[in-house]
Amino acid sequence: MSFVEYNDSIRDGDVAIIYQSHDNMMSVKVQQGAQTQTRYGVIRHSSDLIGRPYGSKVTCSKGGWVYVLHPTPELWTVTLPHRTQILYTTDIATITMMLELKPGSVVCESGTGSGSLSHAILRTIAPTGHLYTVEFHQQRAEKVAEEFKEHHVDHLVTVKNQDVCKDGFGVAGVADAVFLDIPSPWEAVGHAKTALKKQGGRVCSFSPCIEQVQRTCEALAEQGFQEIDTLEVLLRVHDVRTVSLPMPDFGTETPAKILADNPQEAPQNNSAAVTLKTTTVPRELPGHTGYLTFATKPRT
Q: Most CB contacts within 10 A, which of 70, 192, 235, 298?
């Protein structure tokens, strides 16, 4: 099992995703003799998981059933153990596109946090790219390094436990892109410029507050970055409903003639109706996660 390659069957030691419903999933480490409790009963790893194909429908001890899915960065994002606030797929997709990541890209990231974005980056830059990720907190750095090894992507990533604002990324002139998710990204802009290749590259900073964005943009401009843009990704969900509308029975005469002659006596027989689909949007949009600031290092 690897987050960047697909295996057909579940093996001892794999990380699998237990799908109970769209809003109820969890990740489990498959182990001989282990059990996992779900809302539908117990899953026994030895008999119910190991050796079965990914995507299998597994019956639990209470008679209910779940699906066992192969892990992906998107599924890991919604099931990972939170050690910090994380980035979700909407922002991750924008970051991956705007940083122009592709197989073979070299990326520097800080901070690593719970590794949500890291897994998406690794899937994008595999099989020949590399991620240098920096985490200030020692325990978080050790834990995410352990997860990378369990997910069989550790050959694509180097984890460093240091302060990026003081010590940088530990590399120079190698990165195609740099991502910053730290409280004071403006203090790391100079180190980001150092890490980027001489022929240019892209940088992205994620900040929840506009005051952070302002200081970061000033630092980017002072360091000679160009094409500085800030955007906010908002998700608006449309609720699709089936609606039945009554149609008046106007008899043999046309509706226009009836209403023209006797508008106050138009028949109101609701025996006929037309069915159609419509959409509604929420009145409130609580979707702010943060601001994404992008910039380009000019070629030198």
A: 192
What pLDDT sits at residue 211? 97
pTM score? 0.85
Token representation of residue 142: 């050790």
The per-residue b/e assignment along 185-221, b for 16 or more CB within 10 angstroms, e otherwise, is bbbbbebbbbbbbeeebbbbbbbeeeebbebbbebbe
d(CA 38, CA 20): 8
Q: Which two tokens stand for residue 60?
A: 């639990």
Cβ neighbours around 82 below 10 Å, total: 9
Burial degree of 281 (CB within 10 A; 0-12, 13-18, 19+) = exposed
Consecutive 10-residue averages of pLDDT for the chain (300 residues): 92 96 93 94 96 96 94 96 92 97 98 96 97 97 96 97 97 98 97 95 97 98 97 86 77 57 54 77 74 93
Q: Which residues, at least 6 apart from 85, have a Cβ–Cβ distance to it below 8 Å?
A: 113
Cα dihedral 164, 167, 168, 172 in deg (nearest 10): -160
Beta-bridge partners for 130: 106
CA nearest to 198, candidates 224, 171, 173, 170:
173
Q: Which two tokens stand for residue 279?
A: 């959409």
DSSP state of 153: -
